[in-house]
Design a protein that fits this description.
Order of helices and strands: HHHHHHHHHHHHHHHH
Radius of gyration: 21 Å
Structural class: mainly alpha
Shape: globular
Distance between the termini: 41 Å
Number of strands: 0
Helix content: over 70%
Strand content: under 5%
Low-confidence stretches: none
Number of helices: 16
Length: 402
């Protein structure tokens, strides 16, 4: 057991001090993200919105994320990642504090669009900062550490949020979110001030930087990732409904099953990524492997009679997630060296925003029209399309040696 603990801790060695600070800032920020998991309940129970209106608010939420990711990429290149992250954290904190006083439908739609746009401005900037503070050989593990912080934050946030709602009401969530965003901004000023922080991998200024829109391979890679996102987000929309309506699981059982995802990531992702990095496997090949596992996980939904198959399916999709996301991030950062990193990583973030905008709704519509079994077949087909695209990207990148 002692050897296992030492081996686990060894996977974190070599990461820069600045990366650890970024992870702590991310943890503080994500642990405070309490409004988001309870947003639909807040809109229904506290504001009395209809299901249709809740759906439109969530759509505005998705479009805000898309716009914010695009804007954050531009600002990261023009203002730098530090100022972009700082402005985003402080403005988001103020936005959360103010949003609790808005109650009309259109004001809430506009308010959440603006709030999430400002909040997601920091996403591409975080990627660029992570690239600057990481040695080239440590980038994938650094990304994995940030994912670890995000998962820990999202695990703590809803638990704390439930306690706050029970004790003082929904308005307490807005105060908690606002204060933690501002605290994360203050922590950024104290720890990663450009005069104090050490840049490990300085971004090279290229005379004629390549626009990501003209980088054909990168755009195909992002289309494949968007397809992966459409398939993956089903586990946060159609799959929980399937668990309840078809497999008759209780809410607590569904919560435990979904919680297994975060637990597995926390325990196994860093050692797994460290092992795969030592093997030196191709980054795109790893993403393809993760995509295949995610697509295969839907096959377990056809196996009836024993709910243990659902647990196995969750383990398989989590393994796919643990492989695909870190290596997909790492490939995007490596590719971004061809041009302006902010623009590249902004488009990378936008690919997942698109998946949220279209993935949840399309999955629900497919279930409503054709049922669950045919929906899973559609998800398998989307997975296959994404895998074929990635195989083409892998072939071309190896041929061009980029």
């Amino acid at each position: 057991m002692k050897k296992l603990v030492h081996t686990y801790l060894d996977t974190f060695k070599g990461l820069s001090r600045e990366v650890w600070w970024l992870a702590l800032i991310t943890l503080v920020n994500r642990a405070g993200a309490m409004v988001i998991p309870f947003l639909s309940l807040y809109l229904r129970d506290d504001l009395g919105f209809s299901l249709s209106n809740v759906g439109w608010v969530m759509t505005c939420f998705g479009f805000g994320s898309l716009f914010g990711s695009w804007l954050g990429g531009i600002l990261s290149d023009k203002l730098g990642y530090y100022k972009t992250i700082l402005v985003s954290l402080l403005a988001t904190g103020i936005g959360f504090l103010g949003l609790q006083f808005i109650s009309s439908f259109w004001a809430v739609c506009l308010g959440f669009f603006a709030l999430i746009a400002v909040a997601d401005m920091s996403r591409p900037a975080f990627f660029v900062a992570l690239s600057a503070y990481s040695k080239p050989e440590n980038k994938t593990r650094s990304l994995t550490l940030i994912r670890l912080a995000i998962n820990l934050g999202f695990s703590a946030g809803p638990a704390l949020g439930g306690i706050i709602i029970a004790s003082i009401g929904y308005y307490g969530l807005f105060w908690a979110d606002g204060i933690t965003c501002i605290l994360a901004g203050i922590l950024l000023i104290q720890t990663l001030n450009p005069k104090k922080a050490k840049v490990t991998d300085q971004e090279e200024r290229i005379e004629n930087p390549l626009s990501p829109y003209k980088d054909q391979l990168y755009m195909l890679f992002l289309i494949a990732l968007a397809l992966f996102g459409v398939v993956f987000v089903q586990y946060f929309s159609t799959v929980p409904v399937f668990y309840k309506e078809v497999r008759f699981l209780t809410e607590s059982q569904i919560g435990l099953l979904l919680g297994l995802n975060g637990l597995l990531i926390f325990v196994f992702e860093m050692p797994l990524i460290a092992f795969m990095e030592r093997k030196g496997w191709n980054q795109i090949a790893n993403v393809i492997g993760g995509f295949i596992l995610t697509g295969l996980s839907f096959g377990f939904f056809y196996l009836m009679g024993w709910n243990g198959f659902l647990v196995i399916g969750m383990i398989v999709v989590t393994l796919g997630e643990m492989i695909a996301f870190p290596f997909g991030n790492a490939f995007a950062l490596r590719r971004a060296k061809l041009g302006r990193q902010g623009a590249y990583m902004g488009l990378y973030s936008m690919s997942f925003s698109l998946a949220h905008i279209f993935g949840h709704n399309s999955g629900m519509q497919l279930v409503n029209a054709f049922g669950y079994n045919k929906t899973w077949l559609v998800m398998a087909a989307i997975s296959l399309a994404g895998i074929l695209l990635l195989l083409y990207v892998k072939k071309k990148s190896l041929k061009l040696k980029i």
